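As described in the Methods, two query proteins were run sequentially through the folding procedure within a single session, without resetting any intermediate state between them. The first query and its resulting structure tokens are shown here.
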Amino acid sequence: MLFIRVLLAGQALLWFGVGLAYFVQPEAMANLTGMLLMSPAAVTDVRAYYGGLPIGLAAYLLLAMSRVDAARAALT
């Protein structure tokens, strides 16, 4: 069970870092992948989707560490 918790914590840390980077600096992160953000709506969309979704996934993985049944689902 310790290995599973360490694995989930590592994944949560990785996803949180990626999400935070997209949330804080969406223009710079989008340039790394070749996306051009031509309008403020595009910046907001990248910030919400590529920033918010990984942060939410990281929160789920941290929650899954506390329950065995949720940890199995998170590993799947």
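Immediately afterward, the second query was submitted; its sequence and tokens are:
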Amino acid sequence: EAPIKLNERKIGSIRLRVETKSLYLGLGRFSVGLLMIAAISLLFGRIASRKIRRRIAEAEAALQHMALVDRVTGLCNRYAFEHELARVVALHARDGLGSALLFIDVDNFKKVNDLYGHQNGDGVLREIADRLRGSLRRGDVIARIGGDEFAVILVNTHEPRAIAHIAATLNEVAARPFMIDDVPVHVGFSIGIAIIPDDGDSAERLLNDADLAIDKATQAGKGSYEFFSPQFGAKVYQRNQIEVALRHPVSRDELEVVYQPQVDLCSGEMIGLEALVRWRRPEVGLVSPDEFISVAEESGLIVEIGRAILVRVCRDIRDLRGEGWLVPSVAVNVSARQLRMGDFRLDCERTLAEFGLQPCDIELELTESVLMDRIESQRDFLDRLLESGFRIAIDDFGTGYSSLSYLRHLKADKLKIDRSFIQTLPDDADSVAITAAIIDMAHAIGLKVLAEGVENDAQLACLQANACDYIQGYKIGKPMVIDELRGFLKPASRSAS
């Protein structure tokens, strides 16, 4: 209550009365509203949080799946397989038992991709994965660890006979055709086998051992399997030593060239020579071409070696002719890597011109496998070589595709029958029949035929009876160094007279 005054005189009073019930009621409603908003927000927050956590978990699972599973086949990938292999190795280190590692290489798969496309190639890979799953136990580990490479762990299976039986079964499974647009396509498996833990105490070592076994299986023939042997490692070491040493023989003049005569069967006249390379390695001695040529080819050193041999041959021809000897054309072996060089023909022409020679003085020997590699481009390439004047010979015929049908599309001058057929003449009826057929068919398409590796009179008589054109071998002359060759050549003046 408060007084009301006028001219300092109280004339009345005023009393204020406040009602707080509505205020508290308003405050109550506001508090309830805040609580409801908070509860609703919390509910929605929990729902949103749960969705986010679920999506994160799904994303993590997807990432883990991508990290561990091959996208094409649905099998384990290399990372997951190596992890599982390490686990199995550690397990057997404790329990004393064993398992087997199978490294599988799909033969001819590159041709599937090239002929039918990568989409159909992926379909074949998926079918291979399905066949592996259907042929192995549920507890075995199956993975795709590369483009056309698969791997298997046969868990708790280490008895060689059982492993060999499984490998043979897988080869049978792979031999069944794969259908692409109703066309049967054939591939196969080459399988390398390593025993866990006998052949290695780590995943890396075991994979390397199985890979070495695959190389051995591939050499034995497609569709085969091979167990790892410690000798494989020794051969790899020896190969690496050869590759290291091969980087110096050209500069150190360690390579030698020997010449073997080629003779006309009718006239008995020498119609050519083949240049053969030898490597005299310091402190080791003479190294067989069988030991180092394949290493040089794989490492790419064959290009430098091939160029050095051509230079040596051209120099020898020039020098011998300068001394007055009649020197026929000389055959030089050419590798696939040399042919892939874009300037191979021009390089040969420049080398010949440097020594005053013509392309017809050199015969280029190419194997079947080299010719069949990208046959269309090879045909154009051979045409250009022939137009330039080079002679072309197809070497080692019978060891590769063994088909004369493709020769109709490839121009050449001469066909050389591989020595493996000649060695068994005339006792082996099959070799006689094959040799006769090759000669007849080659003559039908205008090719001369040379038989290499002729060593005795019986082989010579058999080849004469089947109208072979030329022969080469120890029967008429061994490979000779240039000093020995001088005694085999005729003076050019005598030929002119």
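The two ends are 159 Å apart (CA to CA). We note this only descriptively and draw no conclusion about the first query from it.
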